[in-house]
Amino acid sequence: TTVTLSGFPTVTLNKNRQTSFRLKGNGLSKDAYALHATKPVQVLHLSGAEELATNEGQRAAAIVPPLANGETCIGSKVVDFSRSMENPFEMILNVAAFQHPTDPNLSAIGKFVLQKSVNGSLFANVTNPDELVVQNHLNNPANWHSFPSSDPDISKWRWIALNTDKLVVGKPNIIQVYADAARTQIVAYRLINKGNVFHLGVLNGRGKDDALYGYFSDFRKVKAEVQVRDKSNTVLSGGLIPVCRGESLELDASVGLEYAFYKWEPGKYLSSTTDPKVKVLNPKTSLSYEVSVRGYCDKVAKAGISLDVAPQISATISGPSVLCGAGEVPVD
After folding, report:
1. Is the pTM of this model over 0.85?
2. How distant, in Å, are the alpha carbons of 68, 110, 227 from that of 299?
3. Is omega for the bond preceding 283 within 30 degrees of 0, making it cis?
4. What 3 state SS string does 140-209 have?
5. Which residue, of 32, 72, 98, 248, has the greatest Cβ tally within 10 A?
6. Is the dihedral of CA 6, 8, 14, 16 positive or negative?
7. Model confidence over 233-249: pLDDT tens digits?
8. CB atoms within 10 A of CB 262
């Protein structure tokens, strides 16, 4: 396996072998690195917190999630996290976000929403000025940076590191002497992106005491798969789907992906062209529909369905139209 890290010589690794690179950069510096491997590898980032005045430090490490590559998309739309240690412990967020190359509406930058839950309450958008600073900083394109790579996949990502010391500590910490013993609130944060995927890393630490580091990201390979269902939750696939003329039908293309963008074509007889679930209202002619799903990297998932609408039945009564008792009327 050939491993290339920007600014370093290329290294070749055999099976079950490892190597290390010493990176430069301190705090919120603009140093970034891009690592390429010819086969799948795991990357452990050893970082931590440092006290420059006393030259004291605490180490912390995290497995770094890979960026999108080829046909796969790796990332999250929703990540919950909390701050475990308060000031003077620093809280730094490392975020990588997908920037769509052609459609700004499908880019993550500018679509972040920060929410908060207190004592198990429902998550709600933050309103505190200190917390809004974090949300606004994430949504400002000028604060984001490119990775040092010419790879077409990596060039679609941007990164940012920001200090979030003003976020509320998550819960009472009976071990940490700096925690407020009277604190009773349990606070959790939720970072949402309605445009595209992102990775969230959290570093919370102090050089004299302790440091915690981890990525709260979805490491699964996201691949949108569309299934069209009727109102009885039966999957509709293959061949023509028989429908009675004037019968309403529900199509469900929910793929279990949060904050996805849907588009149904054509819009004839449909209750909506942008919802995951739509109704076909009183169809009078046979036709085919295609639904496309976007919002996960630059991938597009599509599925089609064809409806065979039965022709209208015209009944003709021949013979007498008025009968008495159990007479018979021929119907053509």
Report:
1. no
2. 10, 20, 17
3. no
4. CHHHCEECCCCCCCHHHEEEEEEECCCCCECCCCCCCCCCCCCCCCCEEEEEEECCCCEEEEEEEEECCC
5. 98
6. negative
7. 777 766 678 888 877 88
8. 20
